[in-house]
Amino acid sequence: MTGSFLDAMLFSVGVTLPSILLLVLGWYLRRSDQIDQRFCDQASKIVFNYSLPALLFFSIYRSDTDLLENLNLILAGVVTIMSLFLGAELVARRLVKAPRDHGVFVQGVFRANMMIIGLAFVSSAYGANGVAIAAIFGGVLTLLLNVLAVITLSKATGNKKFNPLLMARQIVTNPLIIGILLSLACKWLHVPIPSLIAEAGGYVSSLALPLALICAGATLDFRKIFSASDIAMWSSVGRLIVAPIVAVIVGLVFALSSMELGVMLLMTASPAAAASYVMAKAMGANDVAAANIIGITTVGAMPTMAVSLTLLRFFGLI
Predict the structure, then answer these.
(1) Would the pLDDT of 143 be above 50?
(2) Which backbone phi and psi does 272 adopt, to 5 degrees?
(3) Measured CA angle at 303 (ends 257, 280), to 5 deg
(4) Is 163 helix (H, G, I), strand (E, B) or coil?
(5) What is one GO biological process annotated to this record (predicted)?
(6) What is the mean pLDDT of residues 95-113?
(7) What 3-state class would DSSP assign to 221?
(8) Would you say 59 and 206 are in contact if contact means Cβ atoms under 8 Å apart?
(9) pLDDT at residue 210 tops 60
């Protein structure tokens, strides 16, 4: 049933505004010298290694959802990511000349910040039940995103091969993946979690999204955004405009439910992943362009996501 356009706008604002305010807070704290780069680096490590894995673990463990129940959603997500990856590869082969730019352009299009910005959006929209579904969805797709990123970034040095052992090591040691796999194992084996550990885990989990968003806001540099290269701008267009369109089309083809379609849009059309800069720098790709893509899409995703949600809500799709 379709609602009024005003109701649709209020829904989209309610989903995106909390994340925007935390990003603005981080930006203000950094510009007023109340926090510095060292704080952001240390806080990001805490979020990545402890808070976010704890959030994913307890969200999945306490939910009634499982992998098989969300198989259709996960398959839709895989099709969306692969469509964006292959499409970006075709465009890059025609338009991107420098090897150092190729992989950066491609990963900017397909690699979304699912586990921070995406989860924050889903949490605002659907609460704990949505986060549980998004955690399983994002956990599985994190594997695919990392594999595809290594493949495309390996072209920075003209080497079209990648090291499967190194990739496997990156996957099995990823704290987010470990947290998801542990939660699934504990659910399947019916392992009880003592209340004291669950309470402590809840405190650690509650740090994840606010602290991650504050740190993301603190790293925004509008001067770099406005001086971005053509590669960064066109890759950002793919992330901000093409990705939501592809996500919705694939979701409708797979006949996803209202919540599933909303979760997939919010997760797959989020800004470019923060880890894309780290990986680009480590693999000899154009890390400056990667940083610009993150900045452009982090700022631009808020209005484009609000518009997407408003339209889908207005037409009764979510």
Answers:
(1) yes
(2) -60, 145
(3) 90
(4) coil
(5) transmembrane transport
(6) 90
(7) coil
(8) no
(9) yes
Residue 266 and residue 141 in contact, taking contact as beta carbons nearer than 8 Å: no
List the chain domain ranges: 5-311
- The CATH-assigned architecture of domain 5-311 is Up-down Bundle (1.20)
Q: How confident is the model at residue 254 (pLDDT cuts 50, 70, 90)?
A: very high
Residue among 250, 295, 284, 253 nearest 101 (CA): 284
User: CA 56, CA 54: separation in Å to the nearest integer?
Assistant: 5
Mean pLDDT, rounded, of the chain? 83
Q: Quick check: 227 pLDDT over 70?
A: no
Could you give the CA distance from residue 117 to residue 19 in angstroms, rounded to a whole number?
8
Establish how many alpha carbons lie within 13 A of residue 302's alpha carbon, considering only the half-sphere containing its beta carbon.
Answer: 17
Residue with tokens 């997500």: 77
pTM confidence score: 0.77
- Determine what percent of the chain falls in helix, strand and coil, rounding each to the nearest 5: 80, 0, 20
